[in-house]
């Protein structure tokens, strides 16, 4: 009896150890790298010059969550791009950066970035690699200085060996910091919403969602193109000018025809990314539909599709159906993915 | 008589020696050094950062606290029209008034006699699309304040200073001139090609182990007055808006060839 008890205790211990060990062993296999979902187009981001590895991604993740690159070490990328909110700054129309200063634009969701052909609401940055310098150097975001940041990383107790593992040298250079951040960010792939499972024939839409999908394809898909739910173009969706006098794409190109145009955002994970629009002026999805339904401002560069139809006219039933479909774009596994959260 | 002959022979041999010295053997497989000296003035006064006061044709007075610009894509031409283009990756120079070393870039080019010098003032569109791992040295986007983060692109030319006519709290003026033509949507391109004729003030003779020093006077006063008069009062800050293309037209006119020193010994550890 006693022996049996003893034996079961030992067995239990072994099992526990085994379980722990298994978890540890599993971790390396967990690393999937970057995988293109079969029904997604070819990504714009490439890995020719710097292969993506577990080490580059993990280093990027650590940097993403570290305030070390901001002036006073208080602001990290994750301050305004929170994983549980699909990497937006939930509840903030515009974000507050260092010293609680406010910007003029809504923090974008960081999702499926490998397919993006330009970055930020005005598309001012053409590659993901060059994007992190913007918030790092922006005086109202992180107000940092990457040159200074490199020195801090070089004298840090952990970073030199992490850079060594990721890039094979302890010398920490600008492009390595940027590549590591990019490699973490391209792994932020969202492809497990109900919409995606329907695409993979794993489930089916409800009749209401199906009706919404038909409406979506007829009325929204021209700009919010499947399966990324954006065509990456710049359009004026009739919001009119805001108090910050933000002219969007015009700020980059200085072309009259670009005034008030902003990049079409993805619709994935909508439920987690409120408020909406480039300045976060609309707090609910119903509000967004109201905007397209009857609040369009007839600006000079208003998108021809919206001009032609005087917005997107929708009946109350159509709105409900459309909302039902839009909620199938929420990917809960994306916002709860442990490998995306603070290391 | 004998004395005269001896003197004559001596003079003759001296002359021969001289002419022999000038008659260099050109071997285009051998490379010699060219040093381009950028010597800054403002109108006719030497550039001294912070301390000196200058004026423009609008009778505005100003000083200069920062002056930096990119010189890239350097090319040399011979009288027969033949050109030598310095390999692109060796042809990025950031001229920075506070950094004495930056004012005299050295370049190795094939032996020969060169009558023209050409370079681009700014960072061309091809370079502006380089992948991040190739953006090292003066092209490092993080380290020299010559890069626009939010509208990706290098600043070609930057001048800052103070002027009582600049109507802002610090009485400061700032001209940051960038824009290279755009990635996807065409924009203004403020790169300017500068062509300098070396025949009037001395062609550049390049020989192995020696340096040909091309001395340029760079007149910063031209920024305000070369082609388009620029008023500091009207335009205390010019970056993406305002008369940036006018300033670009003006900076294309800053460079004047003053003289060339050929066959200079190369001092080691000169930096």
Largest pleated sheet of chain B: 8 strands, mixed
Radius of gyration of chain A: 23 Å
Q: What is the average of the pLDDT values of chain B? A: 91
CATH class of the largest domain in chain A: Mainly Alpha
Helix content of chain A: 25-40%
Describe the structure.
The complex is a heterodimer of chains A (343) and B (271). Chain A contains 14 helices and 2 strands. With 343 residues, chain A is mainly α. Chain A has 2 domains: 54-190, Orthogonal Bundle (Cytochrome Bc1 Complex, Chain D, domain 2); 194-333, Cytochrome c-like domain (Cytochrome Bc1 Complex, Chain D, domain 2), CATH 1.10.760.10. Chain A has a two-stranded antiparallel sheet. In chain A, helix 2 packs antiparallel against helix 6 (159-167), helix 2 (54-64) packs across helix 7 (174-186) and helix 9 (207-219) crosses helix 13. Chain A is globular, with a radius of gyration of 23 Å. The two termini of chain A are 46 Å apart. Mean pLDDT of chain A is 90; it is low at 12-26. By secondary structure, chain B is mainly beta. Chain B has one domain. Helix content of chain B is 12%, strand content 37%. Chain B is built from 3 helices and 19 strands. In chain B, strands 5, 6, 7, 10, 13, 14, 15 and 18 form an 8-stranded mixed β-sheet that branches. In chain B, strands 1, 2, 8, 17 and 19 form a 5-stranded mixed β-sheet that branches. In chain B, a hairpin with a 4-residue loop joins strand 11 (147-148) and strand 12 (153-154). Chain B is globular, with a radius of gyration of 22 Å. Chain B starts with a helix and ends in a 6-residue tail after the last strand. The interface between A and B is medium-sized, with 33 and 24 residues.
